[in-house]
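Here is one chain, start to finish.
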Amino acid sequence: MLNKFLNWVRGKEEPAARGNPSLEFGRYSDNNKVPGKVRRWKEADNLFKEKNYVASVDAFFDYLRDDAIQNVRYSRDGDTATFELYQGSKIIRGEIRENRLSADVKLALMPEPSIPVMRRLLEMNFGLYYSRFALNNNELCMRFDTDLNTANPNKLYYGLKELATKSDKQDDLLIEDFTHLEAVDQEHVTPLSDAEKNVKYEFLQSWLTDTLGKIAEVDADKFSGGISYLLLNLVYRIDFLVTPEGLLLNQLEKIGAIYFKKDERSIVDKNREMIEALRELQARPKEEVVKNLFRSKYTFSIVTPQVHKVTADAIHEANENMLWYRDNGHEYFANKLMEYGLSYCQYSYSLPKPITLLVRLFMQVNYPAFFRALGYQDDYYDPASGRFREEAIIKYIRMVEGQWKERYPYMSFRTEGLNFSGLLAFNYSFTTQIEKLNMDIPA
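Its structure:
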């Protein structure tokens, strides 16, 4: 309880009323280092330049460790050290010995030699910059190693990130494509309760039915742009609220990529392909879906940070595109377009934690039944009456600002600019205020 309180004070836990579950939403972001951790990176860099390689590596792993989730284990004994990094369904294990760092991760068991598997890994090796696939007896692995005198913090970060993120993705794909392979080294993941699995599955199905139903009501050519927004936003909402892993996450990524693929197909054709893919997802047996719902620790984000202007521009563009739908009486489309401005950024970039918490507030206003089913006590909006809990919303925003004031001292959300006259008006005013935030970090 004391640790939970201290983490709340330090800004490492989301603001929550008493009795609410402590759930994480959205992809892991390593773009939220507290000032002390940022200093450790600078120390690691300076120590490396001074050729104090052992102390540099020590500082680097301290920087990498997220103290709130304990995603990194690092132990030194004289001239040697060992470490473990958690990344989703994978554990990266390594050691430092005789001025050399080596790390590896187990992907799958291969009971019998397989030429197709080895060919797949050989082809993928050409796309790697720091790491490589390997075979250790009957275990498929990935490996990264380097001499300490060339292991500056940047090389260590990107080398270990490639090892971690690629292995976390490829283990599921290999086992799916080659049925004789067996999962390995996944005992550390935490299964969700049956109740939480059921809630997320039921709302996943509900959102699919709702979105596909709304699309079927409009002209596919005239509304092609709005349909694209609805489909992409659905993918990003599922990613944020359901937080899938494994093959389900990979399927969502493939669906989202259909729209952005550079080819000669029309938007209508791309929409049709996305709709078919979502229908296939909807038809998947429940047991196949829920097995991809679990909790795990992460060390690296799979997307990169961006300056706030990139987020602001995306929100602004989505809100501008929303105006036609609002002014022509298509409120459902208008609300989803404004949601898209936030959900696209949350999906595509490693966002600062306070922005992610504000995205969660937006989702809690727009999807209160989902959060209520998960056990959240605080309702910020009642769709039946159209009434907002204005004080609770403002209090939440102020708590977020207070938790992260040390890192983002210029962040000031103008709550007086919020419009509580209706959901459409609120969404527009809320996203506009996020667009205008100053998220600069002092030098």
